[in-house]
Amino acid sequence: MLGAPGSGKGTQARRLGEHFEVAHLSTGEMLRAEIAAGTPLGREVKDIVAAGDLVPDDIVERLVHDRVLEASRHGGYVLDGFPRTIHQAVAAYDIAKEADATVHAVVHLYVPEDELLTRLLGRGEARLDDDALTIRHRLEVYHERTEPLINYYEGRGVLATIDGRQQVDDVFTTILERLREYAPAD
Ligand code: AP5
Ligand code: MG
Predict the structure, then answer these.
(1) Are 60 and 139 in contact (CB under 8 A)?
(2) Ligand 1 atom nearest to 52, measured from its CA
């Protein structure tokens, strides 16, 4: 799942995971769990996540590696919030290769900026990066570091851009329709 903060990656990835009976792997959730548990990794990344900056590539790549391998043994996975840089995208292909998995599609959720701000400010989950200033910074980081992945995946013929402004159910239906173009029927 590729998309700006608030575009609905988590909402849709969770549903896709349930629908296809595969693991939903969210690097944001993994990092927040490490922070909440006060692990050494959590303490290392806390300030970075709170500021809305990206955690270093090697840390998140290590974080997802074993989980992707494990999920591949049980039918597959939906990645949410990873990859977020070109370096991570290359790593994601390497990990998939190691797991003998096929990257079927990259779902890009497009939502205009004013709608993203409304959604994130209204989320009410007390996330440590959901105040107005940090949200603005996360959007800048997305434009600078993650948006280049749109062209990267388009060039590889795996990008499905979806109108993420629709109702949650309609976004999901549209994703399933588009995925039929990319994934085999089974
Ligand atoms: P991460 O947890 O990935 O957050 P994010 O990208 O900022 O995105 P969000 O989780 O805020 O939004 P979402 O797209 O999942 O939307 P959601 O479904 O929640 O990353 C957090 C931080 O962790 C990063 O800033 C970074 O520090 C670090 N990090 C994570 N991964 C990393 C990586 N790979 N590399 C480096 N650092 C990393 O929806 C948002 C709201 O809108 C919800 O309230 C929802 O109910 C609502 N909503 C959803 N869909 C709709 C709809 N169709 N209509 C109306 N409302 C909707
Ligand atoms: Mg999310």
Answers:
(1) no
(2) 25
What is the position in ligand 1's atom list of the atom closest to the CA of 51? Answer: 27
The catalytically annotated residue of 127, 136, 145, 178 is 127
Binned at pLDDT 50, 70 and 90, residue 43 comes out as very high
17 within ligand 1 shell (Cβ under 6 A): no
pTM for the whole structure: 0.96
Q: Which tokens sit at 58? A: 């090697």
Which helix (H) or strand (E) segment holds residue 105: the answer is none
Q: What is the pLDDT of residue 74?
A: 95
The three-state secondary structure class of 169 is helix
Q: Which of the following is catalytic: 43, 62, 97, 123? A: 123
List Cα–Cα distances, 21 to 24, 124, 183, in angstroms: 9, 29, 15
Any bridge partners for residue 107, and if so which?
A: 160
Q: Is the CB of 31 under 6 A from ligand 1?
A: yes
Peptide bond into 184 cis (omega under 30): no
| Per-residue pLDDT, 62 | 97
- Homologous superfamily in CATH for domain 2-179: P-loop containing nucleotide triphosphate hydrolases (3.40.50.300)
